[in-house]
Amino acid sequence: LATLMGVGLLGLITSSARVRRRSGVGGLDDPRSVALVLGLMTVATLLASPVQNTISRHVELRADLDALRVSSPEAMVDLQRDLCLRAVCDPTPPVWSQFWFGSHPTVLERSGLVTNASESPNSSEEPNYILAEPDDDAEYDGGDQ
């Protein structure tokens, strides 16, 4: 659905006389229209990045929750630290950078997940994670997909 909306919007923009005049493109049969379409797609991708990355961070955090359920908290923290050191990552990236370009939770967010899980008052209760899991996933057992 989003792809169809994107293609429709791209068609509307490229058919605009003002856009064609400013870009020097006579019509879509003009070879220069390729550059116009690629430029518009680049801008659209950049504008859609925060939404896509927010969804991606949520999915990654849920994967971390499953990993935490089957491994030790210390192993998870050590893994995140080692990955960060090898990748020369920034454990505290600027907020705008993480919002716009961060497709995974930061190392500190992932370490905080472990800390929140270990501070759970009752081991039989679900720990208070950084992001709450939706109620409709209560039956999810983390099995094969």
Helix content: 55-70%
Q: Which structural class is indicated by helix and strand composition? A: mainly alpha
End-to-end distance: 24 Å
Give the tally of β-strands.
0
Counting DSSP H or I runs of 4 or more residues, the number of helices is: 6
Sheet with the most strands, sense and barrel status: none
Q: Average pLDDT value?
A: 77
Q: Report the uncertain regions.
A: 122-145
Shape: elongated
Q: How large is the share of residues in beta strands?
A: under 5%
Using the CA coordinates, give the radius of gyration. Answer: 22 Å
> What is the element string, with H for helices and E for strands?
HHHHHH
Written description of the protein model:
With 145 residues, this protein is mainly α. The chain has 6 helices and no strands. It has helices at residues 2-15, 17-23, 33-70, 73-87, 95-101, 107-118. It starts with a helix and ends in a 27-residue tail after the last helix. Mean pLDDT is 77; it is low at 122-145.
